[in-house]
């Protein structure tokens, strides 16, 4: 066999693919090894991207990978073409084309029952026979021979099948053809596992770095982000105790200690929502001078060079405050954790939003907030976290692995379950409005501040950055100038870069046209 042979590991995986791996890791692995995986096909349901399984097919390797929708974990590995899937089980080849075999019909070839039974997998219990469809043209049924973590399908002439026949006599007879497919899964048998195939907790982590000896020194993976309000985010880990991210207090050193070093660091540079801030200069409006810049709007490249308004544009009386603002902006940056599924903004702490704490907030760690002027400029902390949904079909798909979250403080009732990352925005908005109704002065203000704002990611100057986390919504002053269903959104279905932003106290949701939340910003 060639050097591209893949090890078959029942109940665990095939080659580089391990059950439980994240969709992000699998696609990254495929993309990084074009020689082994020259092509792949990606299938998902546009209307229900988080409710339906995701399929990745490798036609040149004879393999199909199936992932669950909500968590995007690898649940099933199928071998569909044994002539292309070069598999080894321990020291035995699962299938080898006979010398001189007609490759025009190679797709019909597969290992025989005798080879599987005698040379590869060995003894097992009787399997399950699936008869042909009553109205189908085929007179051939399928016999599923199952082992722990792996199952093999054999075609059987329906006329030859009898429940009284033992499996060896049936499958070794001329009425049974070579295997047509193989499945690798987690479970004692296919019959037991298939009912919970996409819902049972995967036995292996999302990242291959956490498997075996390689996990030593690697930070534990994050299972869920629980948002408790008032800047408190509980990051639930797979094996370790939860890590409490306290916005405005948790330092970069804390992040590196608990989450590991970031995969990259990006300078904050997006100022497209500055027009909606209350701190714009009055002269920009009263004098009709167009859109003015504020110190917070200064744009920085990754090297930290500034591109903003000239110093002459500002009053000398405010020079000290403006200089401080530029200095603050100069040190703001994102910690990008692609493998965890989120980014964290590092900046000078300021007064956090007066987000509704909700019931149960007394049970979480105390969090003290101080005014901006009381905190030295050299004191940096995590001030925002952006949780990525990695929704199939979105503009930024597969830059991060999927991060799941639950809003513990926005129940809008003690008997209701938390809002989660799998829910559609149309389902969440009524409950969010009810949960945060006390935050607004009146119904008109609530209606104004909760309208959707259109966003087009395709126009971003730096689409690989974290600049999707737009603006300063902390003061609740963002004005939505167009409703989500306005004419400005025409044609968005053809452009995956078109999304809508919805803001609530301490939260900004970025929503796709199908209602799925692609990003959640917590501040």
The total of beta strands comes to 28
> What is the makeup of the main sheet?
8 strands, antiparallel
The overall pLDDT, averaged over residues, is 78
Give start-end ranges of low-pLDDT stretches: 102-107, 272-315, 354-364, 366-375, 461-493
* Cα end-to-end separation: 55 Å
Main structural class: alpha+beta
Beta strand %: 15-25%
- Report Rg: 28 Å
Shape: elongated
Q: Give the domain tally.
A: 3
The count of helical stretches stands at 9
Please list the strands of the largest sheet in the order they lie side by side.
Answer: 4-5-6-7-13-12-11-10
InterPro entries: PHAF1, PHAF1/BROMI
Region (Disordered): 277-322, 458-497
Family: Belongs to the PHAF1 family.
Biased composition (Acidic residues): 309-319
Can you characterise this structure?
Pfam families: PHAF1 (PF03676). The chain is an alpha+beta fold and 523 residues long. The protein has three domains: 191 residues; 241 residues, no CATH class; 63 residues, no CATH class. It contains nine helices and 28 strands. The strands form five sheets. It has an eight-stranded antiparallel β-sheet, with no helix packed on it. The two termini are 55 Å apart. About 20% of the residues have low confidence.
Gist of the model:
The chain is of the alpha+beta class and 523 residues long. Helix content is 14%, strand content 24%. It has 3 domains: 191 residues; 241 residues, no CATH class; 63 residues, no CATH class.
């Amino acid at each position: 066999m060639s050097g591209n042979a893949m090890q078959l590991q029942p109940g665990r995986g095939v080659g580089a693919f391990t059950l439980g791996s994240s969709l992000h890791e699998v696609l990254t692995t495929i993309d990084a090894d074009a020689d082994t995986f020259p092509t792949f096909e990606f299938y998902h349901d546009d209307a229900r991207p988080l409710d339906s399984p995701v399929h990745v097919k490798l036609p040149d390797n004879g393999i199909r990978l199936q992932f669950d929708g909500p968590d995007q974990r690898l649940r099933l590995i199928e071998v569909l073409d044994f002539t292309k899937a070069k598999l080894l089980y321990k020291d035995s080849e699962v299938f080898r084309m006979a010398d001189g075999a007609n490759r025009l019909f190679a797709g019909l070839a597969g290992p025989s029952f005798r080879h599987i039974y005698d040379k590869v997998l060995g003894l097992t219990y009787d399997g399950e026979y699936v008869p042909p469809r009553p109205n189908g043209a085929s007179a051939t049924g399928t016999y599923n021979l199952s082992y722990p973590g792996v199952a093999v399908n054999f075609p059987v002439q329906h006329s030859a099948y009898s429940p009284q026949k033992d499996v060896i006599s049936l499958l070794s007879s001329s009425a049974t053809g070579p295997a047509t497919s193989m499945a690798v899964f987690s479970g004692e048998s296919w019959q037991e596992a298939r009912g919970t195939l996409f819902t049972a907790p995967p036995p292996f982590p999302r990242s291959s770095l956490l498997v075996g000896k390689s996990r030593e020194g690697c930070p534990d993976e994050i299972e869920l982000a629980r948002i408790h309000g008032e800047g408190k985010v509980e990051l639930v880990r797979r094996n370790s105790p939860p890590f409490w991210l306290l916005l405005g207090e948790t330092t970069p050193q804390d992040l590196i200690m608990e989450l590991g070093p970031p995969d990259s660091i990006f300078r904050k540079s997006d100022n497209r929502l500055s027009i909606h801030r209350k701190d714009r200069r009055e002269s920009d409006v009263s004098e009709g001078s167009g859109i003015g810049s504020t110190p917070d709007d200064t744009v920085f490249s990754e090297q930290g060079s500034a591109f903003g308004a000239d110093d002459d544009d500002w009053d000398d009386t405010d020079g000290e405050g403006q200089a401080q603002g530029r200095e603050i902006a100069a040190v703001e940056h994102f910690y990008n954790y692609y493998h965890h599924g989120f980014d964290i903004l590092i900046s000078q702490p300021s007064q956090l939003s007066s987000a509704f704490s909700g019931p149960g907030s007394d049970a979480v760690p105390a969090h003290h907030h101080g005014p901006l002027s009381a905190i030295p400029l050299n004191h940096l902390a995590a001030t925002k976290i952006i949780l990525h949904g990695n929704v199939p079909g979105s503009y930024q798909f597969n830059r991060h692995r999927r991060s799941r979250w639950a809003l513990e403080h926005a129940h809008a009732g003690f008997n209701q379950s938390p809002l989660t990352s799998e829910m559609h925005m149309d389902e969440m908005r009524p409950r969010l409005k009810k949960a945060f109704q006390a935050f607004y002065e009146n119904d008109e203000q609530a209606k104004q501040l909760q309208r959707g704002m259109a966003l087009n990611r395709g126009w971003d100057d730096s689409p690989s950055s974290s600049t999707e986390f737009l603006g300063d919504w902390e003061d609740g002053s963002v004005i939505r100038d167009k409703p989500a269903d306005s004419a400005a959104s025409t044609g968005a279905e053809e452009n995956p870069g078109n999304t809508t932003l919805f803001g609530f106290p301490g939260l900004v949701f970025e929503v796709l046209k199908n209602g799925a939340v692609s990003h959640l910003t917590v501040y």
